[in-house]
Design goal:
WH-like_DNA-bd_sf, DNA binding, transcription, about 130 residues, three-stranded antiparallel sheet, transcription regulation, mainly alpha, Arc Repressor Mutant, subunit A, DNA-binding
Length: about 130
């Protein structure tokens, strides 16, 4: 199979390693789950303990643990353990994670403009 045929074949299969993949889609694959977004957004306020994140996000312990591990492996979140009694684990954003703050600001701005308008339209229409 030639290189061109191979590229065409892999495109048809939705190959994730496509060098020309859309950067928006690639970004959303890293941060786009409900729980990842919730954790990243909460950590913009600063370092938090596991149970604080659990309360603020509403995630169960297993989900939160998995999400924090994923975000750590991708370089968005770092973990700090305090060995003094009681032992505590703290999570904070790395520089990569902090760089998402303007993205969240824009999403919040968009939401306040468009989602409030949609809510008002539904209210006016009795829905």
């Amino acid at each position: 199979m030639s290189r061109t045929e191979s590229q065409s074949h892999s495109n048809e299969e939705g190959d994730e390693d496509e060098p020309n993949a859309c950067p928006v889609i690639e970004s959303l694959e890293q941060i786009g789950s409900q729980w990842r977004l919730a954790v990243l957004h909460e950590l913009l306020a600063g370092e938090q303990r596991f149970n604080e994140l659990k309360r603020s996000t509403g995630a169960n312990a297993r989900t939160l643990s998995r999400v924090l591990d994923d975000l750590g492996e991708m370089g968005f979140v770092e973990r700090r353990m305090e060995e003094d009694a009681p032992i505590a684990t703290y999570y904070s954003l790395t520089a990569k994670g902090e760089s998402l703050e303007p993205v969240f600001d824009e999403i919040e701005c968009w939401a306040s403009s468009w989602l409030e308008e949609e809510h008002l339209e539904r209210t006016e229409n009795g829905n």
